[in-house]
């Protein structure tokens, strides 16, 4: 009974996380119609920093945010900044469901990188997941059948860079908390993006400000909610719920932007998600760490 209640609470946290991630995608598309992606990134980081302060205070204040591995935080956030930039660019170029589906190849690339650089074993389950992911991407891109949209390649690059960020975050979590990792992410990315943002800066219209506040809030707290869900239940219970983002993003794309999803994209997304689910069912899946983003 206690486990069932814990799983139910985890499901609620995960539903909130999924809603926030979808809101981030919708708000990102709305904002980039008016202002440059560099400016979106900068405003998101600065505003989210102030939104994070209550959690920082709860963990002991600014003094508790000190870290002895700052170079690792910088490396992680250079990769993550590039990935976030490419992901937002992709939202302006291809249907939302395709962006989310290709984004889900990141855990597959991360498994491959972990085997190459962290000495983790490339098990047969991971190999099958990688194979499914590759076939799924080919089905979505369909090289040769039609001109490849640059948006597909940009989001695929984002997923690959996100995988680098995942691997680096895994190292960071050995000594720093999720709040501390997000804290340094917002500071470092604010510094990285300041000059590019100033070069393209325009003051947003009044109608755009609610979207800016929404992307700052949703982008910061979606992964906090996911971390809470993972603290209450095993990853094999929580993470499959995240794959609801693919059909839900397709539904949002259809309702908001009249974006149709063809059978090849649906099949490709299905293979990518199947590969992730298959890999997630490995015996040590419950020890998967949440990745702040």
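Sequence proposed for the structure above (293 residues):
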């Amino acid at each position: 009974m206690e486990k069932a209640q814990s799983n139910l609470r985890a499901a609620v946290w995960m539903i909130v996380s999924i809603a926030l991630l979808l809101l981030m995608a919708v708000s990102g598309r709305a904002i980039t119609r008016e202002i440059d992606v560099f400016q979106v990134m900068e405003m998101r980081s600065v505003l989210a920093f102030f939104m994070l302060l209550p959690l920082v205070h709860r963990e002991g204040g600014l003094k508790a945010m000190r870290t002895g591995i700052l170079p690792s935080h910088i490396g992680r956030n250079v990769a993550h900044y590039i990935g976030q930039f490419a992901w937002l660019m992709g939202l302006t170029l291809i249907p939302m469901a395709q962006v989310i589906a290709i984004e889900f190849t990141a855990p597959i690339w991360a498994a491959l990188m972990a085997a190459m650089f962290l000495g983790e074993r490339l098990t047969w389950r991971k190999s099958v997941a990688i194979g499914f992911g590759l076939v799924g991407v080919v089905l979505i891109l369909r090289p040769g059948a039609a001109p490849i949209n640059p948006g597909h390649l940009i989001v695929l690059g984002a997923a690959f860079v996100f995988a680098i960020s995942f691997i680096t975050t895994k190292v960071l979590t050995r000594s720093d908390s999720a709040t501390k990792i997000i804290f340094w992410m917002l500071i470092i990315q604010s510094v990285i993006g300041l000059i590019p943002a100033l070069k393209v800066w325009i003051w947003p219209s009044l109608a755009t400000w609610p979207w800016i506040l929404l992307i700052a809030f949703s982008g910061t707290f979606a992964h906090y909610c996911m971390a809470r869900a993972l603290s209450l239940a095993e990853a094999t219970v929580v993470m499959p719920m995240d794959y609801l983002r693919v059909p839900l993003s397709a539904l949002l794309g259809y309702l908001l932007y009249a974006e149709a999803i063809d059978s090849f994209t649906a099949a490709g997304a299905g293979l990518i998600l199947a590969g992730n689910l298959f890999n997630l069912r490995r015996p040590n899946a419950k020890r998967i760490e949440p990745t702040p983003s």
